[in-house]
Specification:
Layout lengths: L8 E4 L5 H11 L3 E6 L19 H6 L3 E6 L4 H11 L4 E4 L3 H6 L4 H7 L4 E6 L14 H8 L1 H9 L9 H24 L3 E6 H13 L15 H4 L6 E2 L4 E4 L4 H10 L14 H6 L1 H12 L4 H10 L4 E3 L3 H4 L3 H6 L2 E6 L3 E6 L23 H7 L4 H10 L2 E2 L7
Parallel strand pairs: 1-2, 1-4, 2-3, 4-5, 5-6
Antiparallel strand pairs: 3-12, 7-8, 8-9, 10-11
Helix pairs in contact: 1-8, 6-9, 8-9
Length: about 400
């Protein structure tokens, strides 16, 4: 097997970050993902450094283990081809607003008539029973809507976005989880279903589990925002020669730490004796830690903390992460020859499986590279494939030898 989802056929109509990340996770687990692109291709084909047009860095990492099929869904023959493919698909994944899918004649009500076993998953901006239902959504907008920049400003001053497409990727994870759960339900019942994964609500669920905090109670018994995470001194600690990530968390951790730095008396201080007191006085505690860690080298501290069984790790940069001894040993970063893009560095599949281990099967596809191949696999004859290509309803990429 090529992964636990081997044999699952997914028609992926998503583009940009969120939906392609969801289908990437499913593809990495062995699903056969047909990336259905417009003739212009996914927008991320142009995002980041590239050797060739349409094959930029962000696209390469989001779209491995997929095959590209160009269909013009505004062309009646292109739409008809997709409808025909839906008859034998297991999953339709899309990131269009439901109203747009309805205009294409691809709403769940339409598709259910074609294939009642289909798992139909839409990941888009907002739940459809609220006033924002028709609004467009991107990562920055959802971070702002949930209040993530304000949470950051408690630590940084001005509101700032998190330096990652965190909303897109969190919601993409939720969508992939929803698809696998719906497939499991289908195995039990034989029935497909529609699953909607709205960005706003999903990311709010992610963020507010930490930060509803005092407003968990009605009326509130404290401020919003998890105090430890919101403190401006919650950061890697500067040592004499670098930075260190340290998480001294349990009572036992703190008792051992205070003893190791010659301040065993602080373990009995009411401010620091238990997690409630430490949370209430987190600013004082972080200021103390910053002063203490600045007194020795990173290597010295790693030795002290490891002997005391306190969680600590050297801070990497993106560059040093590539040579991190653990990452090297597990083979997380590897190199692969791409048919058109040359030598590439790849990001590994992080899970370990005793059975049905996933693998890297395909490099990220060129636009329309697999159009004819996929159409044939879904039952189209040679004449039909030729007619779709000739009409512009389907497209094909440039051949390696062209």
């Amino acid at each position: 097997m090529a992964g636990p989802l081997d044999g699952v056929r997914i028609l992926d109509l998503t583009s940009n970050f969120m939906g392609p990340y969801a289908s990437l996770l499913l593809a990495d687990l062995g699903a056969d993902v047909a990336k259905v692109e417009s003739p212009q291709g996914d927008t991320t084909r142009g995002v980041g450094p590239r050797r060739n047009p349409g094959m930029a860095a962000i696209f390469l990492h989001l779209n491995r283990n997929k095959r590209s099929l160009v269909l013009d869904l505004k062309h009646p023959d292109g739409r008809a081809a997709l409808v025909r493919m839906l008859r034998s698909a297991d999953v339709l994944l899309h990131s269009l607003r439901p109203a747009a899918m309805e205009r294409l004649g691809l709403s769940y009500a339409d598709v259910r008539e074609i294939n009642p076993r289909l798992v139909y998953c839409g990941c888009f901006g907002f739940g459809q029973n609220g006033p924002y239902a028709g609004k467009p959504a991107y990562d920055d907008l959802i971070q702002a809507a949930v209040g993530m920049p304000v949470l950051q400003s408690r630590r940084q001053g001005e509101p700032e976005y998190v330096a990652a497409a965190i909303a897109d990727r969190v919601v993409g994870m939720a969508a992939s989880n929803a698809v696998t759960a719906a497939l499991f339900h289908r195995e039990r019942t034989g029935r497909g279903q529609e699953v909607q994964v709205p960005m706003f609500e999903t990311f709010a669920h992610f963020a507010m589990g930490d930060h509803l905090y005092g407003h968990t109670f009605v009326p509130p018994i404290g401020d919003w925002g998890y105090a430890r995470m919101m403190n401006s001194d919650r950061r890697p600690y500067r040592t004499l020669d670098g930075y260190l990530g340290v998480n001294i968390y349990t009572d036992r951790h703190w008792q051992r730490f205070f003893a190791a730095v010659g301040r065993a008396d602080l373990a009995a201080d009411p401010r620091f004796a238990d997690i409630h007191g430490r949370t209430e006085h987190i600013g004082e505690l972080y200021a103390f830690l910053a002063e203490v860690f600045a007194s020795r080298s990173t290597e010295d501290w790693l030795k002290v903390l490891t002997e005391a069984d306190i969680p600590a790790i050297r801070m990497n940069t993106p560059e040093t992460l590539l040579s991190d001894p653990h990452m090297s040993e597990v083979g997380f970063f590897a190199e692969q020859d791409h048919p058109s893009e040359g030598r590439l560095r790849t990001i590994g599949i992080p899970q370990q499986w005793s059975e049905s281990a996933p693998e890297l099967r395909y490099p990220a596809p060129r636009l329309g590279e697999h159009s004819a191949e996929l159409l044939r696999e879904f039952g189209f004859g040679e004449d039909e494939v030729g007619a779709l290509l000739a009409a512009g309803a389907a497209g094909i990429g440039v051949r390696d030898d062209a």
